Amino acid sequence: MYVRSIYATGDPAELDGVAEALRTDGHALLSAQPGFRGMGLFADRELGKLLVGSWWEDEASRQASYENLSKRRAEMMAPFTQTVTVDNWEAAVARRAEDLGPGAGFRLVHMDVEPAGIDLLVDTFRDTSLPKIQKIPGLAGISLLIDRDRGRAAVGALYADRDALVASRGAVAAVRGEATAKAHATTRSLEEFEVILATAVPHA
């Protein structure tokens, strides 16, 4: 599958209204697009950050949806958004969660890796890291996203609640350190968010 992520920052005081619009109207608009396979909406209310992830069957569906909804999305996010970044990814490994909502937690790690080393990172994550991480209490879903051309990767992990997210930090850090060393990857950023919405559409 393929993923589009939209990372927006702005005034924390304006976040809640836009987040609610994205949770309701935004989700409905995405759901009506061909090839849609799910959505994640995550917030850092204290700092003023919103992250929207959408999942697609193929690259064509992802691109068409972006073009179809560009104007409406900009209007919906305008009251909050001061900066916005859009990235496209390939889902190399995906253990997607059942529907989650308020109370759940999300951790996002961005990594840099030489493009020639992407496959080593994928193999390391799937064969070594994933079996260990899946044993951590409270894990609800985890995915490895890659951008082969730009030598980038992202790992997103969902936890059933905030307590499980916090409790997992030490164990996950150990796994992450082992994996990045083995795959010659560099951690670029580490962030945690509140889950507003996380849905997955099963294949027919």
From TrEMBL:
Pfam family, one: ABM
Keywords, alphabetical: Monooxygenase, Oxidoreductase
Superkingdom of this protein's organism: Bacteria
ABM domain ranges (all copies): 1-64
GO molecular function: monooxygenase activity
Identification of the protein by name: Antibiotic biosynthesis monooxygenase
Species for this entry: Streptomyces exfoliatus (Streptomyces hydrogenans)
